[in-house]
Each structure stands twice: as structure tokens, then as C-alpha cells.
Amino acid sequence: MIERTVDFERLRYMRCGTCSHEWEVDTEWLDRFDTGDEPCPECGTDCTSENCPNFWVRPQDPVHDDSTVRDLYWYHSSTHAVWPDRDFDPTAQLTDDTKKMMEHDGLFPGAVERWAARQRSKALHVGTYEAAIENMLRRMTDQSDAGSQFYLHRVQLRTDCVIEPGIHREPTDFVGDAQLAGKCGPGVNALRYVNVHEDPSNVSLAIEIDAVWRVQTIPIPLAVDADDSELSAATERLLAEAGKPAVEEPPEDGDDQIEQLFRRHRVPVTPLAAEAGALREEVADRLPSMRRARFNVEFDEAGYAAAPSAFPAKLIGLARLIDNPRAVIDALAEQPWRYV
Ligand SMILES: [Zn+2]
Does residue 84 have a cis bond before it (omega within 30 degrees)? Predict the structure, then answer.
């Protein structure tokens, strides 16, 4: 089996939708591209064009080869401890009222069951370690999963899984309800696509559960030892500010009336919350620049006294998923395999 080298800062590979030029870019180039200040170096097409440059897979990437795809470890992050799950019941999360609504009070009998069947046949997604971690960070920011427990799953595919030839664009409907059936050749249960959102320009797979042989799982982030020196230092810093009253911001010279109004109505921040914010910024600054904007961990000030080290432990644990992936993969490797 092949474990790929983890690198959150690698160069990305682009392909121009207008002239088909392909080249490598760094984060600074992508920032300029996103603001319209950097076009395709060959034909000048910028990000405003429908056929603009987008992420693509390097021609020499070994995942072009089917046997390599089967030999690689693939990753998925999820709030489910057991994934993928043949016994997954999507209706378990629905209330009776919701079910009644879906069947329009009996007008559409079986609507709930048809919906559940569609949910169960949705393609699963696996990708690189980086893509799985970035997916978790995105969900923590975007989908009110900030407080959820996440799990990292390491997947080994079946040696007889059937892979659709070629590497494809991610069809937009794969974000929601996506089935491989009807989109791929007969019997296909794995499709390679270019991930343009997470670990962009690397390949992810849309798969059916039958393509999965076995899975290892750990909760993430890894627990940080209570006597960890970084954790102790961060906890001390919060402790030093705890209990201090919030200080009103003094008016500044040159405030206009609007600014004065804002200042008066702003809820004053406690020194504790300010220090928590500073810790978060310092940890975010250590992360690769593309990810910085996505690092969002809420500080629960009301719950601080009950668990003073919980917030710094979460921050440090998350940062180590990125700057010490080896420890995470070693922890995964010690887990028993679950056969799917
Ligand atoms: Zn071009």
C-alpha cells in the first residue's frame, strides 16, 4: 500500500479553459488570479471568463493508473464514527412531522422511502489526507459543525473495484444527490475527479460502498496531552485574563458620529475573550496561507471555567493535524480494520 507524502503547501496545477495551456502556480498567484489581477500567461483569459483557467491534474500524477488508485490509502472526514455504513438509515434524523410533510399528508405515499433510497445510493467521497482535513475545516466554518466531533477514516479499496477510465471534472450535482449509476459504464463503482475545492488539483474519488474493502478510523483532532508544554503555556495565558471585567473602548480622537455610535453600542470584549482571540490568530498564522481564512474555532466563554484548557487543546490539536500529519497517520495505522 502507498501512503502519499502530505504537503499542504504544494504548488497547484492549472489548465486554461480557453487555450488549454497547463502550468504550476503558487498561493500568491492564485490570490492575484482570484482578484482578476493575473490571467492565463498564454492567452490572457482571467477569472471573469466562463472558460477561465481552473485546477487540473498533472499529467505525470500516478493516479492516472488504475492499479495505483487501488494501492493508495484514501481519506474521508466525517461526523460519523462508523463510515461508510451499510445500515445507514437517513430517515432516523427525520421527525414524524417532516415525514408527513414529505408525503404531503398521504398524497405521495412512499416519498420518504424513495428519498431514503436516493440518500443511500449517493456516491461517497474519498481523497487525499489534505482534502479530508480541509473538508473538516470548511465544515467547521460553513455548516455549523464548529462544535461537532469529527472522525478521520482511512480507506482501502477492493482490489476488484471497477474504475471509470480517465479523470473527470466534478459534476456539480455530486455536491448534493449524486449517483454513479447512469453516469459511468456498467459495473463502475469508482470515478476519479479533479478536486477544485480541497487540496485543489489533486484527484478525489466518487465511489459506491461496494468499492470499499476496509476502513480504519480515529477521532480528530488527536487529544493533546495534559502536560503538553504548548498547551500549558496557552492555558496559563487564558488563566491570567480570566475574571477580569470587560473594558469599554475609550473614544478615539477623530471618531465621527457614526463611529461614536458604534463604539457605544458595541458589546465590550472581556480580556479573556480577547486573549482567546489572540491565541486563535497565532495558531492560524502557523497554518498554510490558503487555509488561514478557514480556521474558525468558537471560544465558549460561558463554558470556560468548567474546562479551562479545552479551547487551547482544540486549537493546538487542529493545528497539529496540519503540521504533524505523521502522528495522525501513525495513530490511524494502529487501529483495527473494519471490513465494510
Ligand atoms: Zn489560456
Answer: yes
Q: What angle in degrees, to the nearest 10, is found between the helix axes of 310-323 and 325-333?
A: 90
Distance CA 3, CA 330 (A): 11
Q: What are phi and psi of 237, to 5 degrees?
A: -60, -40
**Which tens digit of pLDDT belongs to each residue from 262-282?**
777 777 889 999 999 999 999
pLDDT tens for each residue of 247-261: 777 777 777 888 777
Identity at 299, one-letter amino acid code: F
CA 15 to ligand 1 centroid distance, Å = 8
Residues, Cβ < 5 Å to ion ligand 1: 16, 18-19, 21, 40, 42-43, 45
- Listed by start position, the domains of the chain span 62-220, 229-324
- Amino acid at position 79, single letter: T
> How far, in Å, is the centroid of ligand 1 from the Cα of 270?
52
- Report d(CA 165, CA 191) in Å as an integer: 8
What dihedral angle (degrees, nearest 10) is formed by the CA atoms of 84, 127, 180, 111? 50
Amino acid at 286: R
Integer Cα distance of 97 and 81 in angstroms: 28
Contact 218, 136 (CB under 8 A): no
Is the pTM here over 0.70, yes or no?
yes
Q: Who contacts 339 (Cβ-Cβ below 8 Å, separation ≥6)?
A: 213, 214
Helices (H), the chain: 27-34, 66-71, 96-102, 111-120, 129-142, 229-241, 257-265, 271-285, 289-292, 310-323, 325-333
Ligand 1 centroid to 53 CA: how many Å?
A: 7
What is the Å distance from ligand 1's center to 39 Cα?
8
